Amino acid sequence: MDHAPQLIQERSAPPATLVIFGASGDLTRRKLLPAVDNLARHGRLPDQFALVGVARTPMSDEQFAESALGGKSLLDKRQLAGGVRYVAGGYDDPETYKRLAETLDELDAVRGTSGNRLFYLSTPAGAFEPVINGLAGAGLNQATETSFARLVIEKPYGRDLATARELDGVVHGAFEEHQVFRIDHYLGKDTVQNVLALRFANSIFQPIWDRSWIDHVQITVAETLGVGTRGGFYEGAGAMRDIVQNHVLQVLALALMEPPVSFEGENLRNEKVKLLQAIRLPTDRDVSEAAVRGQYTRGGTREELMAGYREEVGVDPLSRTETYAAMRLNVDNWRWAGVPFYVRTGKRLPARLTEVALQFQRPPHLPIPADQLTELDADALILRIQPNEGISLRFGAKVPGHSFRVRTASMNFSYDQTFVEESPEAYERLLLDALIGDASLFIRSDEVQQSWRIVDPIIEHWERDRSPIPSYEAASWGPTDADRLIGRNGRKWRNAS
Ligand SMILES: NC(=O)c1ccc[n+]([C@@H]2O[C@H](COP(=O)([O-])OP(=O)(O)OC[C@H]3O[C@@H](n4cnc5c(N)ncnc54)[C@H](OP(=O)(O)O)[C@@H]3O)[C@@H](O)[C@H]2O)c1
Predict the structure, then answer these.
(1) Residue 443 CA, ligand 1 centroid: distance in Å
(2) Domain check: are 448 and 323 in the same one?
(3) Catalytic residues (predicted)?
C-alpha cells in the first residue's frame, strides 16, 4: 500500500532507501547527492535512511560515499554513517538486480529502512527500459501492504508522442502510475510554485486573469550559455524537445489552468491536463506562421567571442538542430479564447532569464495627449522565475512636473528582500516529495502525452522543411523571424537589456 501524502507541516521523509541508477554520472554528482546532503542537514531524513548507487563504473561503497558527499560529508558523522552502498553492474544484467535486492534487504535489517524504496533513474534515456525491466525481474517493483516502491524518471521522456507512449508501456508493465514520478526540475522551484500562490491564495488577481483584461502572454526561457560539452546530446534534442516540451509547457499550464479544488496531486494535474488539451494545434499550413526556429552563429564581443553552434564540440558542422524556438499558441476555452500566448526559448541569448509576462489591454480611451505618453508601455504583470526571483507590476504614473506626462513605473516584489528563508534547491524539494509520496509536482503520463501532442507537429514540420535554418548571432535575441512572429499583430518581445 502506498503511503498517503503528509501534511505540509510534517514534511520529513519516512524510513526509506534511495537507489540512484547512473550513480557515476553528472546529475548525481552535481544535483542529487548535494540534495540528499541538504535534506540530511535540514533534518528532513530519518536515521532509518540509506543511499545506494548503481552504475557500471567500478567503485567501492567508500568511494561512492566519498564522491557522494565529499569532504563536507555527513557520512562520517551521524546521519548517513553506515548507510551508503554502491552496486557495480550492467543495467541489463539480472545479477546486478539480484545484488541490489540483497543490499536492500541488508539495509532494511541494519538501518530499519522498512522495505521502502525510491528508485531514481539518472541514466541516459536508453538505459530506462533495461533498468525498469531489471527491477521488475527481481521483484523490486512491488509495493506491499506496508512498504512502497517508487520510480523517479528523468527527462527526456520519449522524443515524441509515439516513443513516450512506448516508454509508458515499459513503465506500466512494471509499475502502476501512482508509483511513477516523472521529474521536471522546474516544478521544484519555489518561484514556479509561487505562480500557484499568486493566483490561488489571492482574490485580486483572479478576476483579471482572463481574456477581458489580458492582451497577450509571453513566456521566455532564455539562456546565455551555449551547448558547452553537451553538443552530442543536444544534437538529438534541440530547443523544442529540451525546453519547450517540458519546462515551458509546464509553466504555461500552471499560469493558465483553472483553479484546482486543492493542490493535491490528482486535482492539480487534472487542471494542467485540461489546459494542455485546450491548446489548439497549428495545422501544417500555418506552422510557418506560428512557429520559428533558429540556430546561433558566432557572435559576442571582441573580448568574449562565442563560437557558433555548428562549431561546438560534438555538433555536426551541417547541423539543422534548433537552438532557439518561438511559438504562438492559442488556448480554446472560455477564459482564454482569442488571447495569443507567445513562448520562446534559446541558447546564447543576451540574458539568462525565465519569466511569464501577462500584458494587459490598453485603456479603451486615453484622455491624455499622445505626445505625453511616449514612455508609457502597456500595463504588465511579470512573474520572474529566475534570476532576481520575484514579481513586478508595471503601470503608468505621472511624471512629477508641470506637464501631465505619464511614464511606465513598477512595483517590485523580490524574494530576496522579502523573505529570510532560503529556497531549497529544486532537486531537494522534489526528492523529498517523492520520498513522502506527494506527486503534485511530478508529471503524469497523460500530461507528457499532451505536451508531445503540442510540439510534435512543429518538430515534424521542421524536419520536413529543407530550407536553411534561420540563424541568429550569439548574444542576440534570436532570429528576426521571431520578431515577425510576434510583430504580425503589432506586438513585440519584452527584451531585457
Ligand atoms: N546533467 C544534468 O544537468 C541534467 C539535467 C536535467 C536532466 N538530466 C537527465 O538526467 C539523466 C542523467 O544525466 P547525466 O547528465 O548525469 O548523464 P550522464 O552523466 O551521461 O550519465 C549518467 C550515468 O549513466 C550511466 N550510463 C548508462 N548508460 C549509458 C550510456 N549509454 N551512455 C553514457 N552513460 C550511461 C553512466 O554510468 P556508468 O557508465 O558508470 O554505468 C553515467 O555515468 C539523463 O536522463 C539526463 O537527460 C540531466
Answers:
(1) 20
(2) yes
(3) 247
Q: Which of 3, 172, 178, 247 is catalytic?
A: 247
- Cβ atoms of residues 262 and 269 within 8 Å: no
Whether residue 15 is found in the same domain as residue 105: yes
Listing DSSP states for 356-425 in one string gives: EEEEEPPPS---S-GGG-TB-PPPEEEEEEESS-EEEEEEEEEPSSSS--EEEEEEEEEHHHH--SPPPP
The number of the ligand 1 atom at minimal distance from the alpha carbon of 123 is: 24
**Residue ranges in 201-245 assigned as alpha helix (H):** 231-235, 239
Domain ranges, residue 249? 187-424+444-487
Sorting pLDDT into bands at 50, 70 and 90, what band is 7? very low
Assigned domain for 429 exists: no
Q: Are residues 395 and 450 in the same domain?
A: yes
CATH for 131: 3.40.50.720
Checking if the pLDDT of 113 tops 80, the result is: yes
Ligand 1 centroid to 174 CA: how many Å?
A: 22
Is the model more confident about 152 or about 495?
A: 152
d(CA 443, CA 49): 26
Ligand 1: which residue has its CA nearest to atom 22?
A: 25
Determine the average pLDDT of the residues in 139-167: 96
* H or E element at residue 286: helix 284-290
Q: Quote the CA–CA distance of 134 and 137 in Å, as a whole number.
A: 5
User: Is 103 known as a binding-site position?
Assistant: no
Per-residue model confidence as pLDDT tens digits over 35-68: 998 998 889 999 999 999 999 999 999 889 887 6
Tell me the C-alpha distance between 37 and 76, whole Å: 12
Q: Are residues 312 and 450 in the same domain?
A: yes
Cβ-proximal residues to 390 (8 Å cutoff; 6+ apart), any chain:
191, 384, 412, 413, 414, 415, 416, 418
Q: What is the pTM of this model?
A: 0.94
Nearest Cα residue to atom 4 of ligand 1: 27
- Whose Cα sits closest to atom 11 in ligand 1? 122
DSSP string, 126-165: GGHHHHHHHHHHTTTT---SS--EEEEEPSP--SSHHHHH
> Could you tell me the three cell numbers for 424?
531549497
Confidence of residue 489 (pLDDT cuts 50, 70, 90): confident
Residues across the chain:
497
Shared domain check, 414 and 364? yes
For 408-464, the pLDDT digits (tens) are 999 999 999 999 888 889 999 999 999 999 999 999 999 999 999 999 999 999 999
Cell numbers representing residue 284 in the block: 501544417
- Same-domain status, 263 and 322: yes
Please give the tally of structural domains in the chain: 2
The CATH number of whichever domain residue 220 belongs to comes to: 3.30.360.10
Question: Hey, what's the torsion of the CAs at 318, 324, 330, 335, to 10 degrees?
Answer: 160
pLDDT at 2 over 60: no
- 247 catalytic per annotation: yes
In this prediction, residue 74 carries a pLDDT of: 47
